[in-house]
Amino acid sequence: MSYYRYHLFFCINEREDGRPFCAQHGAKEMRDYLKQRVKAAGLSGPGGVRALIAMEG
User: Fold this and answer.
1) How many CB atoms neighbour CB 45 within 10 A?
2) pLDDT by residue (tens digit) across 26-44?
């Protein structure tokens, strides 16, 4: 069984080569909003929600 009950993945990458990227579509703002809502709902911390950031390598 996983240590966290829920896992959320956010892509917040940025590119400089002209191709579309996650950050230009509100991904960072959505991640920040979700973190606030998770905390307000009492789901943050051990055993709750884990928000992970996926970056393109």
Assistant:
1) 11
2) 888 988 898 899 899 988 8
Q: Which amino acid is at 25?
A: H
Give the single-character DSSP code of 46.
T
The SS3 call for residue 50 is strand
**Around Cβ 10, how many Cβ atoms within 10 Å?**
19
Largest separation between any pair of C-alpha atoms in the chain: 42
pTM greater than 0.70 = no
Domain count, the chain: 1
Burial 20-35 (b: 16+ CB within 10 A, else e): ebbbeeebeeebeeee
- Is 1 inside any structural domain? no
Range of the domain at 12: 6-54
